[in-house]
Structure formats: structure tokens, C-alpha cells
């Protein structure tokens, strides 16, 4: 259990994770769905939603977006 906690703490300072979170938020703000962003980065829907909660205001469920 403590190893998991330490891994999470260390991951917060990982530059690759920082980049992934910034890029995911950018795509979401451009109109991608959470599911699309999660698939792009090979993450689960719930994990990506938690990342985006820290990085971008989330749209209401079912909100339509215009991309392109």
C-alpha cells in the first residue's frame, strides 16, 4: 500500500505526466470528449475524467461541441 502512495506522489512530479495532463486538457477544451481523450492516451474514462477535473472545466454531460 505505501509503495502505491509513494508512486502516486512521485508521479505528480513526472514531466511526462505533466505533459500528458496539459495535452489532454488542451484537446478537451478544443471539443474532444473525455472518452476520445482517454483513448488517445490509453487511459480509462474515469482516470481521464479525474485528470481533466484538475486541468479544465468540464462540460455538462451530453453537451454538444463543435470541433474543427
Automatic annotation (TrEMBL):
Source superkingdom: Bacteria
The Helix-turn-helix domain, residue ranges: 19-64
InterPro entries to which the protein is assigned, alphabetical: HTH_58_Actinobacteria-type (IPR045745)
UniProt protein name: Helix-turn-helix domain-containing protein
Lineage, top ranks: Bacteria, Bacillati, Actinomycetota, Actinomycetes, Streptosporangiales
Amino acid at each position: 500500500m505505501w509503495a502505491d502512495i509513494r508512486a502516486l506522489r512521485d508521479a505528480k512530479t513526472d514531466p511526462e505526466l505533466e505533459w500528458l495532463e496539459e495535452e489532454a486538457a488542451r484537446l478537451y477544451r478544443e471539443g474532444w470528449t473525455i472518452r476520445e481523450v482517454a483513448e488517445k492516451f490509453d487511459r480509462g474514462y474515469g482516470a481521464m475524467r479525474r485528470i481533466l477535473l484538475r486541468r479544465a472545466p468540464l462540460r455538462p454531460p451530453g453537451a454538444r461541441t463543435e470541433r474543427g
